[in-house]
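FAQ: What does the model actually see?

It sees only this:
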Amino acid sequence: MDKVPKKNKVINKIKILRSKFKQYKIDGYVVPKNDEYFTEYSRLNRLKVISNFSGSAGVAIILKNKNYLFTDGRYTIQSQIESGKNFKIVGYEKLSNCSLFKNLTLGIDPKLFTYKQINKFFLKFNHIKFINENLIDQVEKFKINDKYPFFHLDKNIVGESRNSKLNKISTHLIKNNSDYLFISAPENVAWTLNIRGKDGPNTPMPNSRLIVSKTKRIYLIANKTKCKKLIDQKIINSNQIIDIREIHKFKNGSFIIDENTCSIYFENLIKSKFKIRKKEDPIYYFKSIKNKTEIKNMIKSHVTDGVALTKFLYWMKNINKKPITEVQAQNKLEKFRKQNRNYLYPSFDTIAGSGKNGAIVHYRARLNNCRTIRKKDIFLCDSGGQYKYGTTDVTRTICFSKQSQYIKNIFTKVLKGHIAVATSNLKKDNIGKKIDIRARKFLKKSNLDYAHGTGHGVGFFLNVHEGPQSISKINKVKIKEGMILSNEPGFYKKNKFGIRIENLVFVKKQNRKLFFENLTLAPIEKDMINFKLLNNLEKNYLFTYHLNVYSKISKYLNSSEKKWLASFI
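And it is asked to produce this:
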């Protein structure tokens, strides 16, 4: 590793990186957000090291005399604040076959990219050179605690045995005339084997890969030390844990690989001996349909989480009388969650943005940059928890003083969109794209909109963001019974405020009808609603929702909290 100057500024790291271009005969180097497991949350964030950008989606391209950071609409403001000094910020949509890099040789780490990404973004104008040593790792030495053991979840938690899941995979392989499925996404390994780990900061991720044969044989590619507990419990045999280079011992046949998560490195390794078929890993779909046990446990986790969040909201609006910072607010919420012994850690970094910081969609308050929350501020808090039996994600926007009619009108339009999603006719609006239109229509009447999807899929004690289901402008995946999604329309006024209302919902079937049932149990701010803009159906929805919240969580509240919650009914 090269020595970085004491101040450790981004510009110094960029200089060190550029000094390597001649050695590797490249004109630039590409740094993605993802690690080699393509997970959303990783303890290893090379993109942040080289750009200071902390968002969940982005790609940096460092050239000899200029730097570019590509990201999406969620991070327009954030990327400018964090990286605008040293990088030109460009939208993702402009990366595809970008002529900015015409005829340049760009270096990449083949473990961090898929061929699909390369074909989409670079091949038309560029020369891509695979460099097996990661150049960012030569700039910065990473200290990663890689000792957390994998652990097994009982059937009473997950609701389906490993063998049942292997049967589904086997059937899929036979149907597609294939011999093996290469599972490159750790979340899918976790689902298949009913195991979890702690390799991500917000997700119980077991960093590993898995090969499943059509005869239901399994070959786990993982750190053997991490699997010791599983071996001792006879969940897995030690001879089922292999090194990927051992696949040359496999009988000839064909592999299904997922082109979205199987890196260039692994694809090249597999196709050197086997035929490959590029198809989406079927486990994404299998996992998106939660069984009755998973739904039951998710309901349970949301009762627990709802109690913590309601106590926090009451404290923020009625108890706390002294000025506090955004960091102090999110730490207080964390304390309420920690009161339950089944709480483990946040499901993502809490977004606690007051005033203008609320307009940064994925804002992260830190000790050195956070605001003191003022009485006149709107406060947006997006948070969630990982519990031993589920994953939560909820956003509430609250105020501490009387708000202008303008603010109340916008909040109410966001709320109307939220209710429109929650009350969707899933027989008619059966894909995310159609539901997304319902969420935006009230804002669009005033020529307003928001630059993110309306909802994402959610995993069971796994990723807080999960596909293939989502509520967005482009998603065409059919909404099915058992799916869990977020419902989170919003609006953001740059340098002014942010508004978002988010509940998790699951798809329930009753009397042959499919509909959304709320999981989230926490009051929605009433002091920012212009009730004149709500029709009777919307008013009735709010009443019914808050009645349900009260009936589910009031017994866990003290008398003052209970009285306050009752005022929403």
